[in-house]
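User: I'm preparing a small set of examples for a lab meeting where we compare how different chains pack in three dimensions. I only have the primary sequence for this one, and I'd like the structure in token form so I can line it up with the others. Please keep the answer compact; I'll paste it straight into my notes.
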Amino acid sequence: MYFYAVGNKYRIKNASRMRKIYLQLLLLLIGAKAFSQNQYYIDSLTAKVKTDKVAFDRATDYILLAEELKGSDTGSSNSYFRKAIAEGANITDSAKKIEFLFKRYYHNFNLNNYKECKAELEEIRTKLKNNPSFSGKYDCSVGYYLINNHTETDTAHARIVATFKKAIKEIGNTNKEDLARAYVGLFFFYYKDQQREKLPEILPQVDSVVALLDSKLRGTDFQFIGLLLRYSEYSSKAYMEYKKALESDLLCRDSINIAGLMINLTSSDFDIPPDSAKKMCTKAIGILIRNTSLNPVKTNQNIASGYQHLASYYESKKDTMGCLNSFRLAIIYNDKAGNFRNEPLIMGNMGNAYRGFGYLDSALAIQQKSLALRIKFQVTEGIMYCYGSIAQIYLAKRQYFQAIDYANKAIKLSIDHNFHDYDNDYFEVLTNAYAKTGDYKLAYYYQDKFYSYKDSMNKIHNDKEIYQLKNEQKEAQQQADFDKKAALLNAEKEKSDAIGKADNKRHKIILAFVLCIALIIAVVAIGIFRSLKITRKQKEVIEEQKNMVEQQKEIVEEKNKEILDSITYAKRLQDAILPPLSIIKQYLPESFVLYKPKDIVAGDFYWMERAGDNILIAAADCTGHGVPGAMVSVVCSNALNRTVKEFKITEPGKILDRVRELVLETFEKSESNVQDGMDISLCCINTQTKEIQWSGAYNPLWYAQGGELKEVAPDKQPIGKHEGQKPFSTHLLKLKKGDTLYLFTDGYADQFGGPKGKKFKYKQLQEKLLAVSHQPMEKQKQELETVLEQWKGNLEQVDDVLVIGIRV
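Assistant: Understood. Below is the structure token output for the 808-residue chain.
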């Protein structure tokens, strides 16, 4: 019986050991099979290169080998790429040569070698003169290059969009892969450039073009689109794109990419049931563990990402052990991948999980470690985030002074480095901590900050720098125009002086000639007669030339008179759209209008209309001045009249919205791209309630009240074609009797003059208006006109001038 028991025990133990051995062998076979599939592909390419006799095909296959090995064996990848370049030098066919250069370009682009990309694009451009069939592909490649190498200017952005659109047009249906690449590039730029409103327009075209590609290329591009959409508002669409990529990668038997996609699909950005997401993530981790040998760095990184997803799942399920164990495994695999900079991020999330489960001491210890690593790696935003997390832990531990200390550190970094995403969290900590310590004054202060700080910072960041840059550009352009005109005047003066010197020299020559003739007449009589004949003939010629000059002068004067009469008549037509000053005085007795067109007709105009108890008055500045500006002013004035009279709109913001629609509708009828429009300051005064409503496009409203000149900021968009246009705002003002409103265009402030020939500028105009605001309205107008004339002096008026003053 004893021996039977011992033998049975031995068999059981031996069977267990055998099962382990079988399992290990099975895993090795699976890994070997997957490895052999990839190695078979590489070996087959290598064999093909050795037997192929065409230089282009050999060079292409070397690049395929370089692409295949760039993630797992960088040295071999670079070696194959050098061989590809050597073989490419032997290509004699010009079209094949260009195609090979494109392959070189995309390999360097994928490795972020932008210096080499630029050189290859230059070489391609020189070769396209004899082979323009590749021009669409070239423009597409330039677009991708510009995305990663452009300045943050409107011109650069417009160039990238135009380049991709040109590529799409040139490629047409000749090459599906290139067309898909161009559409995806344009889509990527719109997303990267925060032009999210344009994504729905192009997405159906991208989807339909990419769907025509073969399965492997479709898998690559759909994965790319899915990654983009994951971070946009189209997450449900992204889920479908990922599914397509997953199916394509299954056909390619690319197990690492399959697992990576499965982990990405478990993100909270996609509407997948949590249990299904957990199951998919666990399966992906299993695939990656079995294929670690194929690409250790990439697989370990994906495994670490998978365990972070699982930790989030367990945290949502309140499974403490599952969550914390997943975080520990994420750190282990992250270390195996050698991605040490990601470790403080994982530890920070782990510390937050500890805090959520109530293990405050452990949470504090982990966050302190994360903080030390972020200080070591000098990750300023991460340091700030750690300070905020530690402050929340101390608040939960009721150690309020420590919480205040760390929250203040976080806010200091936020202000110093312009990181304001988590400011409200820090203000909330300070509000609660100060309240608990009994300092209710500071608690109330930070509570007020909590509700208002974020909105104010958003406004500063979104508007201040953009509008300041636009004003500086506008001033620089005006200064350049002024300098150009001054240079032309100097050139004309020098030319006139040169002509005068030439005339004096010619008069001296004529005088010498006459003296010679006189001497000859005194000596020889025959010479006298001949001289008389010559003189008579010269006189006839001179008289004939004089008559011709007189006739030409009369023709020029007649033409000038016709042009002047036409412009003068145009002024009569423009005056017809301006409200008579007597009507303005009738409804607004205490007011003035200072109106000085640069030319006979103007781009600036003033406008008034009565609608019930409301008086609407505006100062408008249309694009340009002179005849072109006057033509635009007629269009804009008509749009204002239609909006108030025909559509019965009296709220200023809504008036400007409707006027913009009418102006764009008028200019869109033209076959050319008309970009004209106007800036405007529009005020609505209720004669019964004295309520003031105002809206502006680029032009602000100033009003004098209590010895101060205050400003209401306009919307930074014109009445006309504009990227990212939005509804105009209506501002409601509560003014007192005696307060004075000022509506104006930019002509007064932009006038050059003074002792140094500089612009008058808005600050000096504000000071002058405040100084005269207490005077009668006509006296104010005289003062402003006198100051302008004195400042301008002998210089030319650079723009139309319009200032309207109204005393409430």
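A couple of notes for your slides: Residues 227 and 238 are 8 Å apart (CA to CA). Confidence is low (pLDDT under 50) at residues 1-38, 463-468.

User: Perfect, thanks.
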